[in-house]
């Protein structure tokens, strides 16, 4: 929103440690990381990448594991 010239504080409201961006909110934010790790543990997903570029490459690939498909739908 800052890039749209909206007068907002760019600092992440979840952790207060970095500027809000897609990469920060989903992958670098300490709070978001805790949520991602919890979800991955709940779905028994140890092979899911945690970097934006890797996620974008990983998502379109078909998976036979129903837990992985369910996790993809949640994204």
From TrEMBL:
Classification via InterPro entries: RVT-Znf
Protein origin, superkingdom: Eukaryota
Domain Reverse transcriptase zinc-binding: 3-36
UniProt name for this protein: Reverse transcriptase zinc-binding domain-containing protein
Species of origin: Brassica cretica (Mustard)
């Amino acid at each position: 929103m800052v890039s749209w010239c909206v007068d907002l504080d760019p600092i992440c409201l979840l952790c207060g440690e970095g500027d809000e961006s897609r990469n920060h909110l989903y992958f670098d934010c300490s709070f978001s990381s805790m949520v991602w790790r919890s979800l991955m543990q709940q779905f028994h997903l140890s092979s899911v990448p945690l970097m934006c570029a890797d996620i974008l490459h990983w998502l379109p690939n078909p998976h036979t594991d129903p837990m992985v498909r369910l996790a993809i739908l949640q994204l």
